[in-house]
Amino acid sequence: MSLHELSLLSSTEIGELGKQAGSIAIVPSGALEAHGPHLPIANDSLYIERLIKEVAGQLPGPVVCTPVVMGGLSHRHRRYPGTVVLSPDAYKAGIASAVQTFVRAGFQRIALVSGHGGNFPAMREVERATQGLHPNASIRAFGGFGRTFTQPLEQLAEEMELRLCKSEGHAGMFQTSIALHLFPELVGDYLSVTGYTAGETGWWKTLATQGAHALHPTGVIGDPSRASKDFGRLGFERLVENFRTWLVTAFTKPSDWRYRERDAATFDYLDPEDFDVTPERP
User: Fold this and answer.
1) Beta bridge partner(s), residue 24
2) What's the pTM?
3) Partners of 112 in the beta sheet?
4) Are strands 138-142 and 109-114 parallel, antiparallel or unpaired?
5) Contact at 8 Å (CB) between 193 and 169?
6) How far is Cα 208 from Cα 121, in angstroms, rounded to an integer?
7) Which of 76-85, 178-187, 192-201, 256-265 has the lowest mean pLDDT?
8) How many Cβ atoms from other residues are within 10 Å of residue 152's Cβ?
9) Domain 3-264 has CATH 3.30.465.10
10) Rounded Cα–Cα distance for residues 121 and 132 (Å)
């Protein structure tokens, strides 16, 4: 079935959809943050919108989605013009309010998704908190940067026998390729852009504690010059299937998201300079 945008529905229509068997509500978030000199600051938000729309069309029941929360936990990119940084409390309050809206409307299955890796830890906290408040609903967060994005693309690159740099990530080959497929008109000169590719031990700690600028002046992590529209097309197909598979099974079992060391870079929102807290690593 097709995607229903919450903002375009009447209150009556939302209530009716909430009662339908098999209905799924989705609360997406992204970011407005610098993605090098070649990608739009809404890159993560634009990507997650397209991913949800594609997957919704493959599901048997209705899918209702809130507008993407575009501002995110983007502290590691705050030195670059245009980056919008939400505090953890502001982000979590907005996502939790959307979840509660869906619960009141009768939805039993609610998914939290993000196109921006920095949102994942806070999104996971919302999952835990709202699930505790609403035990009769199934609230699941699709998170972990490796699980939701890099691992499917790394597997594809291996199958295609493509050589990757040691630190493929933000605005690098993967994201640039996806952008070339989804919104090529918004992609600038990526062939001349350089980024951080060394991948030394502990580089993600530098990213989390000092910011992207500490790794490379462009804030890019990876090598966008290796991007291609063909890889973006095939990669997006993998990401669609990855999300679809998760979405059709997530509500039949307990949440299975577990943090891994690889995902620890997303803990940049625990910034002692900004919020007077000490970062914790699970």
Assistant:
1) 63
2) 0.90
3) 27, 141
4) parallel
5) no
6) 13
7) 256-265
8) 21
9) no
10) 17
